[in-house]
Amino acid sequence: MNNHTSSRPARIWDLPTRLFHVFLTVLFAALVVSGNLGGNALDWHARFGFAMFASILFRVVWGFVGGYWSRFLTFTPSPKNLWRYLFTSHPNSASHGAGYNPIGALSVYAFLFFLAAQIATGLIADDEIAFTGPLSHLVSNSLSLSATWYHKEVGKKILLLLVAVHIVAVLFHLYCKKNNLIRPMITGDKVLQMDTTVSNDGWRQRLLALIIAVACAGLVRMLISI
Ligand code: HEM
Ligand code: HEM
Question: What is the domain count for the chain?
Fold first, then answer.
C-alpha cells in the first residue's frame, strides 16, 4: 500500500533527551580537564560532578516517563535482538532505525553505569592532599582510598574508552553506513514511515522534564550535605 511506503519526519529524540546529551558532553569535558588539573580546580571538578549526578538521575527517571523512544522499555537489548542486528540482513527501510539499535542501547546502559560508578567513587574519594569527597566521612578510610584508586585509575580509563568508541561508532555510521545519527540528536527528527510511533515532545512533557530536573538537582544538593 502506498501509505506503507511513504515517509515523513517523525520526532524521535525529545528536547529533554537532546539537552541531556549536550549537558553530558560539556560536563564530561569539564570533568576530565578539571580532574586532571587537580589542586584548586578540584572545587570546580566537584561542582561539575554534582551537576553530572543530577543529570544522570534525571535520565534514569526520564527512561520511565520520557518521550516514547527515550524510554528504557523501547531499547532493552536482548541476546535475540543483538544476534538479529549483527548477523541477519536488515534492509535500511524507513521502518528501521527509529530508536537505538541494540549496540547503541548497550552503550547507553554502559554509559549510565560507569558514569554512576565514577560519581559514587568521587563522592567518597580522598586524594590525601587537599580534597575529600563530601560523603567520604560516611565510609572507612580504606574504602575511600580504594574508591579514589578506582576513580583515577580504572573508571576514568573505561569512560574515556567508551567515549572514544562512541564517537568512532557515530562516525562509522556517518561515513561508512551513510546513516547520519548526529542530525536527529540535534533536531530531534528522523525521516521514517508514516506509521512510526513518535515521541511526545509537547510543552507539557517539557515542563514535566523541567520539574524532574529541578527535583533531581534538589535531591543531589540534599544528598551531598548529609
Ligand atoms: C562522571 C563524573 C566524573 C568524572 C568523569 C570524573 C573524572 C575524573 C578524572 C578524569 C580525574 C583525573 C584522574 C587523574 O588524576 O588521573 C578525576 C579526579 C578526581 N575526581 Fe573526579 N570525576 C567525576 C566525578 C567526581 C565527583 C562527583 C567527585 C567528588 C565530589 C570527584 C572527585 C575527584 C577527586 C578527589 C579526584 C582526584 C584528584 C587528584 O588527586 O588530583 N570526581 N576525576
Ligand atoms: C562530540 C561528541 C559526541 C557526539 C558527536 C555524540 C553523538 C551521539 C549520537 C549521534 C547519539 C545518538 C546515537 C544513536 O542514534 O544511536 C548519541 C547518544 C548518546 N551519547 Fe553521545 N556524542 C558525543 C559525546 C558524548 C559523550 C562525551 C558522552 C558521555 C560522556 C555521550 C553519551 C551518550 C549517551 C549516554 C547517549 C544516549 C542518549 C540518551 O538516550 O540519553 N556522548 N551521541
Answer: 1
